[in-house]
Amino acid sequence: RSSDLERLMRGNEGEIREGEFWENELEMERSREHKLQESLGELRKNLKESVQRLQEVSSRSQDLDRELTQERDTVKRLKAAHRLSLTGTKEASARIRAEIEAKEQETLQIQASIIEVERALEQAVMSSQGRTQELEELNKELRQCNLQQFIQQTGTSAAVFQWKPEDEEQLSNFAHQLPPSHRNGDIHISDPDSPPRPTTKQFLGNPRNLQNPLVSSLTPGEFHHWRE
């Protein structure tokens, strides 16, 4: 009986160990199930959030599609307007370029005309200077001729006057006051409406004129001959 009891006790111990093993396994399975439940809850929560985000993304995608369509339409309109503007700009640019070229040609013509006018002006100035110098020489020669004719007509000796260059102005004033008969070489023509010039007697009878060096240098006989 003791042996049977021992076998029975060993059998119970084995069953007890086996029961404890399966209890441990059950507890481990329950723990894994609990963890799986928690994971499943997290997955469901994440799935719900993902679905919500997907809806938001889908709505946003629709909005973006509408905006993209509007942008495409706007781009088409802008391209069409740009083509029209580019055509107008090209025409305006060509017109402005043509105007600029015309202005440049006009400027070149004006510059050429200015150069020609400057050349003509220089030639005219040179010619005028030459004529002025020639006229001065002719006037000087004419005054000398008038002096010689005056000397010849009055019979006055050239040595009496003792001609000096500074007497030229006095001689000119003196010759212009002589009567026309004593100014054969003068180029001036009397105006018919102007008052008559003084005669030789009137000129020599004026005491102021007697102070003229050319008149006062006459000898008494020559002076008397003039007044006669």
TrEMBL record:
Residues 37-148 form a coiled coil. Residues 199-219 have a biased composition (Polar residues). Residues 176-228 are annotated as: Disordered. It comes from the Eukaryota. Keywords: Coiled coil. PANTHER family: RAS ASSOCIATION DOMAIN-CONTAINING PROTEIN 7, RAS-ASSOCIATING DOMAIN CONTAINING PROTEIN. This is Ras association domain-containing protein 8-like protein.
